[in-house]
Design brief:
The structure is a single chain. The chain has about 210 residues and is an alpha/beta fold. Helix content is about 40%, strand content about 15%. The chain contains nine helices and six strands. A six-stranded parallel β-sheet has the order 3-2-1-4-5-6.
């Protein structure tokens, strides 16, 4: 089985996440894409919503696609939050799978990767999604720094640069602006009902 690994804080999950996952599934011939939320403290921007709320939003967002699945491996008590440790844990859970890791170009270029060679050695493919604001030259420099023997496992997906991001959504919600149609309807309803990201507290009467 060819499995995609799509990790992140998903704070909140939005339509661009779903588009990227589905595109990677089709372009890379994946049988399933695992959405793997993290609670790690190694991320550049810490999650605002509690982990249980983020997980609930992921679950409701992917419910309509039988090729998407939720995985809590990176939320276990012994999870380190490092990708090099996550993949062996996933391997134990899915011993017959070949893994394709899906990542935004911003994470490749801006994150401080730990044991990156070890990550690539455990994967069939490492696919990079173009992101608005990340120059192609920066991505190429990052790829060029990868050892030659591992570089053939890395590819960039032929997708448009998507401007939508969790940062944008959180900023809009903090200003009491709607993010409906930027997120699945079920996620929007969850944000409203739970008052996430300060939205409910700042809501103005009609």
């Amino acid at each position: 089985m060819r499995l995609g690994i799509f990790g992140g804080t998903f704070d909140p999950i939005h339509n661009a996440h779903l588009f990227v996952a589905e595109s990677a599934r089709v372009l890379e011939g994946l049988e399933r894409v695992l959405f793997v939320p993290t609670n790690a403290q190694h991320y550049r921007v810490q999650a605002q919503a509690p982990v249980e709320e983020r997980c609930a939003m992921v679950r409701t967002a992917i419910a309509g696609n039988a090729a998407f699945a939720f995985d809590d491996t990176d939320l276990r008590a012994d999870a380190t939050g490092y990708t090099a440790d996550l993949i062996p844990a996933l391997r134990a859970r899915y011993p017959d799978a070949d893994f394709t890791f899906i990542i935004g170009a911003d994470s490749l270029v801006n994150a401080d990767w730990v044991r990156f060679d070890e990550v690539l050695e455990q994967l069939e493919r490492f696919v990079i999604v173009p992101r608005a604001g990340i120059r192609a030259e920066a991505v190429q420099r990052a790829i060029a720094s990868i050892p030659t023997a591992l570089r053939e496992r890395v590819r960039t997906l032929n997708l448009p640069e998507l401007p939508e991001s969790g940062t944008l959504l959180r900023a809009l919600l903090a200003q009491h602006r709607s993010v409906r149609y930027l997120v699945p309807d079920s996620v929007w309803e969850h944000i409203e009902a739970r008052g996430l990201y300060g939205y409910a507290e700042q809501r103005q009467p009609a």
